[in-house]
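Handout, section B. The chain below has 284 residues.
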Amino acid sequence: MLSLLKKLAGGAAAPAAACPPAPPAPAPAPAPKVDPYMLGLRDAVLSGWFNQQTGELFTGFPVTAADTLLDVGCGDGGNVHFCATRGAHIIIADIDAAKVEATRLRLGDTIAASVECHVTDCAPLPIADQTATRVVSTEVIEHVDDPAQFLAELVRVGKPGALYLLSVPHPSSENLQKDIAAPEYFQKPNHVRIISEDQFKQMVGDAGLEVLSHSQYGFYWSLWMMLFWEAQVDLGSPDHPLLNHWAETWQAVLESPRGEQIKQALDGVVAKSQVIIARKPLAA
């Protein structure tokens, strides 16, 4: 009404006050990057590794403080660290002196009853006959020149009744990588052979061990490695969209209602590793 009266009186209406623009909405915080190695650890636990409740390094392979455990080809010490936290007597052996020393240091914060270290090519092992009640050797046989000689050494140092945890890459994953991996991946000192399921069981049986179980796992890592070769990044810092997106996808799969069921189905089709639990027969 006031503006109409001003207009009729010859006056101009006052301009309406301008409203200040609303501040822009804050950008959503980026989702934290998925650590591919921690996701791989979660995937491994779902496959039967590192069971804190049962004390099993892998399903069917319990470790206690009463055990003397030998890890041949200890690598970064992940497997033997779990065993050291069970209070076992630990013996580690690897051809790489730096890895042996790094693993020795890593075990310093555990309750291992003792830690014995050897830098060796395992031909032969510098360990007395019938020493260990548990023998672990994961992802090693595909590297060695003479698998029969290598397994004979593992059997020699095990006590009668000792349990063995052995793993090698699964052929489903290795065959997928043949034309994609860097050439040196399938050259000495890396993977000099692809071992089928039947060959693996035959090797273990011929060495004089009784196969108790034979399983496979690692679809996540199989696909990750395929993308790793394409990404051409450093293994110690694998930052690339292909790898990041795959880790995010796999995390989402595991968190879905039927994620573990999907994982098991895919592990049965393309697996990174095959695992045998075996036993050395009791003395006659």
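Note. Residues 256 and 262 are 9 Å apart (CA to CA). Compare this with the example in section A.
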